[in-house]
Amino acid sequence: MVRLDSDEASALKSVKYLLLFPVSFIFSGVFTESLYLALTLMCFYYARTYKWQLVGITGFFLSLTRSVGVLVVLPLLYEGFMQLLKENEDLKSFKNSRDKILPLFYLSLIPLGIISFMIFNYYLTGDFMAFAHAQVMWQRHTANPLLVLINGYHGNLYTAFEAAFATIFIYIFILFYRNIRFSYWLFGMYSIFVPLSTGIQSMPRFILVIFPIYILFANITKNRISEDLVTISFALLQGFLMVFWTNSFYLVV
Questions:
Q1: Are residues 231 and 184 in the same domain?
Q2: For range 64-87, the mean pLDDT
Q3: Per-residue confidence (pLDDT) for residue 97, from 0 to 100
């Protein structure tokens, strides 16, 4: 997918940063992260290559995998309309391009994933939103994400680490927003703020699946010094955090 916008070197660097990301060892854990990332990449790749039927199918499974996956409709709609505007520069031809707009309706398959899971929840518990109501067991409550972030610094060592991790990547997305596609930026921002609106816990794990991070680092590390600095920093931090992970500390959950 990176090769659609850049060269092979940048594509390989993106994969390298994914491999070396400080918490990428979570991909080998029994979580949804690896499946969620794979389906997200498929959605965006098929959207970029005009295969909207496959976008709808993979998007269905994405929202079935994790509830926040349904929001992928937003950046994908943007990609679809940008493609239409690019192909139809004048307004008249745009109005007459119904055959090109119709494929975007495959995006309506995406919400069916989470709707299916809600029906399953109702079958088991009598509550369509049981998966959301159960979040209180992990002390998750809906709140202002900025307040959650600030309060994280006033908690313990673990919450301060979670808050710092989220803050760093929010800052990176704001500072380098011009270095990636808007649809990627939009995906990255809501992928941070939506989980943050329910609690500070597990933020490194939620950030792990934000693939634009790796493309962004590939774009901003153009010279050898910056690339080596990021590579070594990621690798050392990953080793440090994996010690906590394998010894059941709550620093990375």
A1: yes
A2: 92
A3: 58
